[in-house]
């Protein structure tokens, strides 16, 4: 039996489960230029107020999230949302990432945004392929932007118009 994925705006009570996703091993040197694990629920909640993420829930378990925020504080950039996304490893290959991206497109368009953007390290080909399957295209590349474990890594900027 296939589990039903529900996507909704984040709530204050989700902070502990969102931190658990970040601490699940989802972030590695291959996909993040710095460790993202180790925050407490209170630290996460202070940096990410309720409603700043869409969360995927299966049987009352928050198993993934997509955050969206303005890439800069400039009013002239307010039509763009920069995304970050994570799905707990126990829930990979269940359509959660796709559901989150589609929900982010719908939510951000309803908020008047015209463009979604994200950044992905070149050492993460699975994520790049996933984003392309969701309609994102490369709009730029910062060459050797990060040095992770002694290796220089490009930072790829991708976008999709809404």
Automatic annotation (TrEMBL):
- Top-level lineage group: Bacteria
Gene Ontology molecular functions: acyltransferase activity, transferring groups other than amino-acyl groups
Keyword terms of this UniProt record: Acyltransferase, Transferase
In its keyword annotation, does this UniProt entry include Ligase? no
Q: Does the keyword Transferase apply?
A: yes
Q: Where is the N-acetyltransferase domain?
A: 5-162
Instruction: Quote the CDD domains the UniProt record gives.
Output: NAT_SF (cd04301)
Q: Name one Pfam family in it.
A: Acetyltransf_1
Listed PANTHER family:
AMINOALKYLPHOSPHONATE N-ACETYLTRANSFERASE-RELATED-RELATED (PTHR43877)
This one is known as L-amino acid N-acyltransferase YncA
Species the sequence originates in: Paenibacillus methanolicus
């Amino acid at each position: 039996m296939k589990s039903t994925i529900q996507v909704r705006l984040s709530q204050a009570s989700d902070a502990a489960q969102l931190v658990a996703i970040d601490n699940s091993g989802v972030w590695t040197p291959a996909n993040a230029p710095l460790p993202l694990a180790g925050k407490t629920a209170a630290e996460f909640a202070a940096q990410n107020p309720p409603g700043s993420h869409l969360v995927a829930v299966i049987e009352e378990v928050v198993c993934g999230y997509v955050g969206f925020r303005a890439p800069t504080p400039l009013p002239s950039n307010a039509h763009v949302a920069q995304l970050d996304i994570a799905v707990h490893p126990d829930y990979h290959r269940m359509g959660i990432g796709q559901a989150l991206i589609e929900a982010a497109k719908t939510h951000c368009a309803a908020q008047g945004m015209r463009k979604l953007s994200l950044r992905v390290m070149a050492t993460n080909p699975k994520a790049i392929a996933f984003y392309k399957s969701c309609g994102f295209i490369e709009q730029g590349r910062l060459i050797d932007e990060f040095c992770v474990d002694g290796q220089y890594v490009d930072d790829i900027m991708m976008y999709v118009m809404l």
